[in-house]
Amino acid sequence: MDIYLINNKGSTDISNAVTTVTLNGEYRSCCRELEFGIDELSINVSVGDTIRLTENNNTMFYGIVWNKSKNSDNVVVNINCKDYGIYLKKNTHTYKFRNITAPNIVRKICNDFNIPVGTLTNSNTKINRNFINENLYNIIMAAYTLATDNKKYFCMFNENKLNILEKGHLVSNEIKQQSNLISSNVSESLDNVINRVDIYNYKDKIIKVVKNDDSIKMYGILNDYIKLSKDDKIDYNTKATAKLKNTEKKITVTNFGDVTFITGYGVIVQEPITGLYCTFFIDEDIHIWKNGLYTNKLVLNLKNVMDKKNDGTLVENITYRKNTSKKTKKDKEDYSIYTNKLKA
Question: Within 10 A of 204 (CB to CB), how many other CB atoms are there?
Answer without folding.
Answer: 7
